[in-house]
Design brief:
- By secondary structure, the chain is α+β, with helices and mostly antiparallel strands.
- It folds into two domains: 54 residues, no CATH class; 123 residues, Aspartate Aminotransferase, domain 1 (Alpha-Beta Complex), CATH 3.90.1150.
- A hairpin with a 3-residue loop joins strand 6 and strand 7.
- The chain is globular.
- The N terminus is likely disordered.
Amino acid sequence: MEHVGSTAVIALPAKPLLDMRAGVVVRQGDVLLVGGDLAGAASLKARRRVACMADADALHRWDEHVAEVGGWRGDVLTTVRRVVLGAVPGMVEEWKWAKPTNPGGVPVWSCNGGVCTGEVYKSAVKLTFYKGASLEDTAGLFTSSLDGKVRRAVDIKQGQVVNEPALADLVRAAVALNMKA
């Protein structure tokens, strides 16, 4: 076991460690990130609070992605990443949905289910919240997909300042909603 800050990083054996009802699928080669001393928690509810799955390469891929993007978009993505990871202990960075037209996949943050994607476009960094329509956005961060029944997105354009406290609140609300499911 290795420790990164207050998080334990545990390489897992071939057999799943957590019950599927916990909302976590753990495969051989995955890394389990567990905050504090809850790694041995007997209660399923306690494990759901802290147990999330991550691909060991995902952490390095984020760094490479930010460096590749560069410029103002890289700066915004770095800020957003720091806020999202700092909002909830155990937040996981992953890459999903690789295809020939996008071999690197889509960058995703998750904890007890998907929270949001962090995509980079020519004119904006877009954070799409999986269940954004169910989240209360008192700060008015959502600027895109406002008519959607499930998702909502935050488009951050060049020169725009990220409202870090409001973004952290949205992330916490998204994780809380995942916990209810």
